[in-house]
Fold this sequence. Notes:
globular
Amino acid sequence: xxxxxxxxxxxxxxxxxxxxxxxxxxxxxxxxxxxxxxxxxxxxxxxxxxxxxxxxxxxxxxxxxxxxxxxxxxxxxxxxxxxxxxxxxxxxxxxxxxxxxxxxxxxxxxxxxxxxxxxxxxxxxxxxxxxxxxxxxxxxxxxxxxxxxxxxxxxxxxxxxxxxxxxxxxxxxxxxxxxxxxxxxxxxxxxxxxxxxxxxxxxxxxxxxxxxxxxxxxxxxxxxxxxxxxxxxxxxxxxxxxxxxxxxxxxxxxxxxxxxxxxxxxxxxxxxxxxxx
Length: 277
């Protein structure tokens, strides 16, 4: 499998793998994209290609948000930037996978640029954060604003994980913070991105999404609780909900095989009973 990675226009990190001659899959990553500490690398490209191996016969693009975001940049503004990438690289129509914050942006991408989007999978994302999620994002933004990067990353892991990882990961990261610099490539982007998530509310545009849309999330997600997920599915004319029992916000990395298998079948047009957990 060919691996390609780097920066688009010097400001937007990207990874590309799979079959360049096949139909594209466009992946929008989560908030962690704004907390990246290094430039795109072959090691990360290999990890991502393994994570999305169910799409190895497709042209997979994992595209980050532009760096050095202006203060006040919204998830809708970010969607416009992604539409430009899709247009400039003649990728449309694309199947879109939006993970967490990427799922927030994907809602506007599908609503405002419908001609560019074939099908959508919103993973661990909804119309808006729940109350607990809002409190969590405010804490992360506060820690990022103070430059407490190790604490911010540990908090993010604590909220995303379930089971024993919920305790072990933050403890490990807290210890690692004594020796590892968790400062991201562009620190200000972390604050801007947290604010964009907090201000996101897509309820008034869902009826403008014509693409078949899968809302896939864990029923133990503390950031986007089940009522918010159901609200999202209900607002989209061709919406489908897949809930993973006992899984938290880290669905994309904790259950990648099952999740991506379901997303792949959804993109291939299968909508029948028995598709979802």
